[in-house]
Write a structure and sequence with these properties.
Helix content: 10-25%
CATH class of the largest domain: Alpha Beta
Number of strands: 19
Order of helices and strands: EEEHHHEEEEEEEEHEEEHEEEEHE
Number of helices: 6
Largest sheet: 12 strands, mixed
Strand content: 25-35%
Structural class: alpha+beta
Shape: globular
Radius of gyration: 19 Å
CATH architecture of the largest domain: Alpha-Beta Complex
């Protein structure tokens, strides 16, 4: 089942090219607003799924092309992101030590919304193509062997990054948790629709040019181990997001006017825009292209505020 919010945060199910409005079906789930209704449904999904399925034939439906798609999760309790969690197409000799970081839930945006690059002296702005899992029930100290049973579903995730901020080696929080730096969507796909989340192709396009193209089979630490690691540090709640990392070789500069599209196999295509009021520019290169040319570091800024003289 593909769940989404649309228009004025009506809850829906994707059925072909339509959004089926199930707001009436879930209206009695205790909630304050749309920010916690999806979490409420996730907690009670075994009870509500038969009701939703029974209502699909008669519930109001509208063409997806004619609605505004909202983020499927608005304020999860936690967004955790795995760090350096791919073998980079075999170029890493061994996995990096398992690690993760917390990203602010306030950074979430959704389909056709805009990532805004802030007025800070970042060396480069990038967005990492990732598949994220969504927790279905409270997970604390979960063993890797049991972890898949705690997953409710999956969603496309872009991990926005403002790299190279001063002071050196003390910038991770301000690099990752900025407003608009956590695009997700366009909808939340329940786990039963994904036969094997460790064999999914992930692709990201910048202005129609394919930049990232890798498979989740290349993860250094597999999904079960990721849940085990994070849930040993703090409990994960229903609706929490755990992003599973990226292959960094295709990372490229995000800049003003860019149209970014991310598609993980089976999860639909997330489309966002990029705005930079300072109109800064960078060379259009991926990290892999720079490596192949023997060039050090990230793609240099070529114009606008903070560019090197």
């Amino acid at each position: 089942m593909k769940l989404l919010y649309f228009d004025d945060y009506r809850m829906g199910v994707v059925d072909g090219d339509s959004a089926v409005d199930i707001s009436a079906v879930v209206a009695d789930i205790p909630h304050v607003g749309p920010h916690d209704l999806m979490q409420g449904l996730i907690e009670r999904f075994a009870e509500y799924r038969p009701r939703i399925e029974a209502a699909l034939g008669a519930a109001p439906r509208v063409p997806l092309a004619g609605v505004r798609i909202r983020p499927p999760l608005l304020r999860p309790v936690n967004i955790d992101c795995m760090a350096v969690n791919y073998m980079e197409d075999g170029t890493r000799a061994e996995p990096a030590p398992i690690n993760a970081f917390h990203k602010s839930p306030a950074a979430i945006i959704g389909q056709d919304e805009t990532m805004v690059l802030p007025d800070v002296p970042a060396a480069i702005f990038e967005g990492e193509a990732e598949m994220a899992l969504v927790i279905g029930r409270r997970a604390s100290n979960v063993a890797a062997a049991d972890a898949m049973g705690y997953i409710f579903g999956y969603v496309n995730f872009i991990d926005g990054s403002a790299r190279g901020l001063p002071p050196e080696a003390n910038s991770f929080y301000q690099m990752k948790s900025r407003d608009t730096f956590a695009p997700i969507g366009p909808y939340l796909v329940t786990a039963d629709e994904i036969a094997d989340p460790q064999t999914l192709q992930i692709r990201l396009w910048n202005n129609g040019v394919l930049m990232q193209n890798f498979n989740t089979s290349d993860m250094a630490h597999k999904i079960g181990r990721c849940i085990e690691f994070v849930s040993a540090i703090h409990a994960l709640e229903p609706g929490d997001i755990l992003a599973t990392g990226t292959n960094h070789r295709g990372l490229n500069p995000f800049q003003d006017g860019d149209l970014i599209e991310l598609e993980t196999q089976g999860l639909g295509r997330l489309q966002i825009h990029v705005r930079d009021n300072l109109k800064r520019t960078w060379e259009r290169q991926t990290r892999l292209e720079r490596q192949d040319l023997g060039l050090p570091g990230t793609t240099p800024q070529t114009g606008g505020k903070y560019a090197s003289a």
